[in-house]
Amino acid sequence: MISLKEFKSYHFQLYHVIILILIVILSQVMLAYINVRSVDNVVNKSIELYRWDTAERLADLATTSLELLLQPTFNSPNATSEFRTSTSEALDFTLSQQILQKNVEDICLLFKTSDNKIIDIDQGSDLFDYLTKGLLPKSTSTKKREKAKEWFNKSQNTLFKMESIATLKEGTHTFHILVPFSKHGEVLGAVYLKVSPDFKNITKAVASSYDQSGALISAVILLSLLAMFSITTFLVKDRDMAQYQLFKHKEKELKERIESQKESFFTKKIYHAHHKAEKIVGFIKEDLRNLTHENLETVRIRLSKYSGFMGRVIYDMKTYNPPINVIRNSTFNTNINSVIEFIVNNIFKRVYKEGNQCTFNLMLMENLPSININEYVVWQILEPLIQNSIDHNQKKNIVIEIKTTFDEQLNKINIYISDNGSGIAPYLLETNENGIKKIFLENSTTKNSLGHAGYGCYIAYEICKLCGWTLDAYNTNQGAVFFITAV
After folding, report:
1. Could you count the other beta carbons within 10 Å of the beta carbon of residue 451?
2. Rounded to an integer, what distance in angstroms lies between the CA atom of residue 179 and that of residue 159?
3. How confident is the model over 401-451, as pLDDT tens digits?
4. For residue 110, what are the contacts with CB-CB under 8 A and spacing of at least 6?
């Protein structure tokens, strides 16, 4: 028994088979309708031909036979009883032979008497006595010949003057035929025949022929459609298989490209972090050398932050695809203002002399909400952006302003890192086909020697994406601005 899953796998074929069956049924109905119309047309034409070529000829032949049988009677008016009997039997035989034919329903002779009364005679003895002695038949005419007598009365001119056959068509299949009956060239009356041609056998034969032709055509159409369906199904399967293999190949290439990008990003990030770690290790050594009882608590807190950053650098070396919970976690309760103050006071102000190389202006919003992002990840984002402002304004005493705000409606923290330097080169603010500004792409730098330059903004941008943040950069009249939206 076919399961529902297997049935669904064949739905494409079933739909097509059902459509093919409906097409064949519809074509068969149309062919049957055309056959019926064609048969009716053939029958009507056959009836017309029969009336002129067969029915009238049959009536004319019967009339001629009767005239020939009665010709000796006309030449011998004083016939003997034996002659009367034999002639009457011959007349009865001739009349009955016509009735025995399938298409002839009635035959008689119609005469008009001297008192303008129309009589019908269908017996040989009555016909013999009427023609030889003028005796009227004793039998009473039936009502079935009223129509024949009426047609005879209307056809007087055709029969007696024009001596032509008069035919009346009743309905579609019945003919009332009157043929002039003559004695020595003088028309005495008319031979009447009622003929109803039977075309049932012809109709059946023609319809059967059409049905056979229709069935043959339908079979040919069905076989053709099935052949087309089989070919189409085969081609569709081949196409699907080719598309599947292409998709798998593209999927493999995409995975390899993603893995390569992750490894590249991992390498750059580690190198960049390693470079920063070397600087932190130098700070640790310096703090340890200058450790006194007075600065013990301050140095302890600072060394704890340095150690945390070193731990983060070491963890980043373990994998290039860290789980999301080591970046964003409800256990993290990071104050961005505190991170900014620590970086500025314990990184940049230990390297650069404030007032000679750069001056920091912190405009940090009070009561800024905490975020659930690892503080050392925030460090990895902010530090390269601040460093970028310093590196691109060498030999200038620039003012770096760091500002934080909170948008209560959108529940977002905004971080602005701006300077009064020369700003960002305009071409670095252009976007690529993916809508990413070039300053955030790998190896994008204004330095003459690439080396390991051009990764700070790139790493900050990629880590922002891991945190679900957005990073933008633009120029103002005073200089460059990096704008971070933290969720």
Report:
1. 8
2. 7
3. 999 999 988 889 999 999 988 888 888 888 888 888 888 887 666 665 545
4. 118, 119, 120, 148, 149, 152, 178, 189, 190, 191, 192
pTM of the predicted model as reported, rounded to 2 decimal places: 0.49
Rg (CA), the chain: 59
Structure tokens at 45: 């034409």
Q: Residue 170 in 3-state DSSP?
A: strand
Instruction: Give, in order, the Cα–Cα distances in Å from 399 to each of 63, 419, 421, 478.
Output: 137, 6, 8, 10
Q: Cβ contacts of residue 185 below 8 Å, gap of 6+?
A: none
CA-to-CA separations, 136 to 154, 200, 467, in angstroms, rounded? 22, 41, 128
Q: Which residues pair with 473 in a beta bridge?
A: 482
Tokens of residue 360, six digits: 């920091």
Q: Are 123 and 137 a contacting pair, CB within 8 Å?
A: yes
What torsion, rounded to 10 degrees, do the Cα atoms 375, 380, 381, 382 define? Answer: 80
- Distance between CA atoms of residues 153 and 407, nearest Å: 116
Q: How does strand 398-407 pair with strand 358-363?
A: parallel
* First and final C-alpha spacing in the chain: 56
Closest CA to 123 of 145, 112, 142, 138: 138
Mean pLDDT of each 10-residue bin along the chain, 487 residues long: 60 71 79 76 68 73 83 71 84 83 85 86 86 78 79 88 86 83 85 80 72 77 80 84 92 87 70 74 88 88 88 76 81 92 89 74 91 90 88 80 92 92 88 86 63 73 89 91 89
pLDDT at 10: 63
Q: Which amino acid is at 472?
A: D
Distances (CA, A) of 132 to 94, 208, 418: 19, 54, 145
Q: pLDDT tens digits, residue range 20-68?
A: 778 777 877 887 788 777 777 776 676 666 666 677 777 888 888 888 8
Nearest to 113 by CA among 93, 137, 92, 96: 137
